[in-house]
Amino acid sequence: MIGLGTYAFFWQHSDLVDEPLTLRGAFEATRELDVELFQICDYAPLESMTDAELREAAAAARDLGITIELGTKGIEPERLTRFLDLAAVFDAVLVRSMLFGPASRPTLPEAESQLRAAISDYEASGVTLALETYEQVATTDLLSVVDAIGSDHLGICLDPANVVARLERPRDCVELTAPRVKNVHVKDFAFARQPGWVGFTYGGARMGEGLHDYPHLRETVGPQERGVNEIVEHWLSWQGDPQTTITTERDWTRTTLEYLRSTP
């Protein structure tokens, strides 16, 4: 299933715009685009919501016919327990996280120990934990932890754009992780010369106009055939003013949805 994530509404949620989009507003915008899946990922207000506010948000998603996934950073036991509790509120069956959190950088043995302590509760609840590929942890190291635990409810959230900063090739990341992928983050990316030709900037691109070989990912991972959800997000830099930035963000979202829906 194709879905939208919080990062597809990054600037619309931002305090830099006059009327930041609420979570319910993001749900409604998602449904207006004929999308029925939303990943609440690294959305700071989620963790400060009261129980009543959480129930209200979950009810809004259900009323709109939207399936929810959740996302956080870190694998500390208390964090994973908290997000398993949130998954129950939202009827979510997937939580995306990363090995490193805001205040935690476990070694690989420590990460394995923390995940082993948590995964049985995820298994019992029918929730999958998907760890994202990113530049702070080598893809082979991330896979070594996942493979050591060997649970069907622990796998990879594939984002090949992230690993470029570690000098890994996106295609290699896709091929290494393919058997363990439980979730995909979809965005295009590209390099651009800085002014004066003194280096490059690595950032987002309109889907289909950057360097991402997404047909290769589709062919290698087979998300549609395996029931792996694909979540649209962007690396969109500020475009100089709120209106231009939001207009561009919405355009990138529509373009990405059209691209995914038309890609075999």
Automatic annotation (TrEMBL):
Keywords associated with the record: Carbohydrate metabolism, Isomerase
Alphabetized Pfam families for the sequence: AP_endonuc_2
A GO molecular function held by the record: isomerase activity
Record domain Xylose isomerase-like TIM barrel: where: 27-254
Keyword Phosphoprotein: no
InterPro entries with a match to the protein in the record: IolE/XylAMocC-like (IPR050312), Xyl_isomerase-like_sf (IPR036237), Xyl_isomerase-like_TIM-brl (IPR013022)
Gene3D superfamilies per the UniProt record, alphabetical: Divalent-metal-dependent TIM barrel enzymes
Keyword Isomerase: yes
PANTHER family linked: HYDROXYPYRUVATE ISOMERASE (PTHR12110), XYLOSE ISOMERASE (PTHR12110:SF52)
Protein name: Sugar phosphate isomerase/epimerase
Lineage summary: Bacteria, Bacillati, Actinomycetota, Actinomycetes, Micrococcales
